[in-house]
Description:
By secondary structure, the protein is α/β, with parallel strands linked by helices. Helix content is about 40%, strand content about 20%. It has 23 helices and 23 strands. The strands form six sheets. It has a five-stranded mixed beta barrel. It has a five-stranded parallel beta sheet with strand order 12-15-18-11-19. A two-stranded parallel sheet has the order 1-2.
Amino acid sequence: MSLLIYTFIIIIVWLVLMSFLHSLFQHFDRECKDLSWKMHREIQKMREIALVYLDRSGGLQKFVHDCKKYNGITHSIAILLNGYVMLHKCLFLFKVLFAPTDSKQSYAVYRFVISINPCDIAELDATLGNYILHNPIQAAQVFQTVCFIAIKTLSLIEQLQTEAQISILLKPTHLPPLPSYVLSLSAFPFNYTSQRFYMSEGIAIAMGTVTKYTQGARFLCTEEMCPFSEGFRYIRVHLPGATESATVRNDFVCSLCSSPLQEDIKFRVLGDKQIVEMIDAKVLNALKGYSNDKSHFRIQTFTVFLRDELANKMKIGNHYKIIGIPACVQNGLQATACIEVNSVQLCKSNGPSFVSDNFKYLLSLTSSSCWRFTAILANIFASQVVPPGTYNTLKLAILLSLVQTCEKENADYLDLLIVTSDTLVTDRLLNYSVCLLPRGIRHPPSSEIFPSVSKDKYGTGSASIQACSAVLAKGGICYIGDLSSYKKDKLELLQSVLESRTTTVFIPGKKYGEEADQQVTISVQTNFWCFVDVDSSPKKHIQKDNFLIGQMDVSLIPPNLLDGFGLLIHSEFPSCRPSSLVHHILEKAINPDAMLYKVSQQFRMQDYEEFIFFARNLHVELSSEAENLIQGYYLASRRVRRDSFHGSTLSASALKILISLSKAHTKLSLRKKVLEEDALIAILLLESSLTLKHGKSALCIAPNPVFPFDLSDENSLQQRDSYLMQCHDQLLKFIGAYGPGIHINTNEE
């Protein structure tokens, strides 16, 4: 009896439990249906908004235009045939050759790029705007459906059969200026798990050659009786971060009959792919020889993939802002963080558009003379490294080279070669000056100056061009250091770059899996600085009898390389004030941060950075008077500096150097018109350089023509102005005596 009762109770409990579970499942099913309906309704609304946006932004017209490229020439031929209805036989022949569907090229995937403005989308519908920013892969499916309906409704592509054949790439014009949308390449951790849009900045330091990848592929069931053995049921499309093996594999099975799938090779769609290595722009601070920045930061290179229309959009050494989706690429046992780029934008250097009040006040005090401002500027420059009043000619040449830097091609360059026996102070002065520019690079002797080629690290075997010091210093200064430490082949390559401002990288095809060899020409847009220690020359004890007056022994440097540099500067230990320099060096060794002079507090390093950035961006023009003076000196010097064996020792590039020096002095004076006074300083600097190379000429200038006196007070500045006026008169007489038919008005006339 008790057993029956227990059995009855168990049956009742089981029935109640089953009833409860049934009602729970029904409730869950209703909730899922409601949720599915809500999601379907939201997606349907987003599709409608997407269509409205495409219509308003002009994207729909562009989409219709892009569809035409997939129709080939059939549509155009059909129009021509309608115009020639009288040619029935030809019409019949063309109809046979160009049948409606079979003749048109069919693709597994039809790829479209849609430009998206997130602000405009968010104004239309915030949900869709948020969906695009945070779920771009799913948002692309919304536009995929809209585009498929448009193609079918307007009969844009007759060959298209399924929606899966459409591949949409969303290209945002920008992202919201919020920290959550910025992917910092120097911060840890590197967030590559959330596949949404990020904005990042960096410098391209390595670029691979353009190779092919699979945009999409068609797979068919191997079972002939299966309905999916034909048609476009199985389409594989490349997704961000996917490797080639992930897109195209041989282990897929049919979802209907579980038979293996096989790719239909003739429908595979290939695209262009380029791998670029980028690094945070903060790395430039680490490549400077000297810097006041004591902060510590983490630097890591990262990989970006440029595909199809973005291939070759980047140039090595440039600074770019990119928008893309981070991903993780598996290469064997290693995982590499990368970014699939959707948008690329070149970054322009932004800086202050003003100079400090102290520089403005100094400029107003020296407005009575076109020479005094730059003279005082050179006199007090780099007082943290050398005492004011020392190395004035070298410091003026450095300032002229600093302001004559820009990122434009075919710019006026000003390279410096310093011959010195005091390498310690010279190296410190050049190191300090390099840090005044954003792209000032101190070349480490252990690395390459110019780009080199190596295999990429992703196992593809393709070539990767590595940027080196000269390319990273684009629009700035590349400080090479001591030339005597480089071998002959490096010096020959440097000479070639100085002459052409380009370098060529040879890529052997057999080594890197290409059918043919390649040559890639890279522009080198930087000023080069270097020095030579005259005491290190093995020929320093050999005396020559054929030295001319004023000529230096520069046999350590190849003659062609010597002519490649714009200025040759002789920098020696100051004999007038040796104790002040020794005292300065000792004080700095004891207390490196000490301000030994008042000018160091009035004109800080930041003030010089702002001043140089402002001056280098000035657009200057030659006046007719300055142009005539430069041309007259150039032609007269070519006539004077010649011999019967070698012809003129004045190279054709000297005229370009004169113009560059004149413009640089004008920028340093914060003017926009090149005057005769600027041209005179340029001529004196070049003549001094030529004297060191080839000896004195009939112009016969003093050994230190730009700074013949110590600048200690107002009288010394006045004395220098008078001396420069005498040099100007002497130059006019020189041009009148040796210039071929050139007449320049003198003060007396």
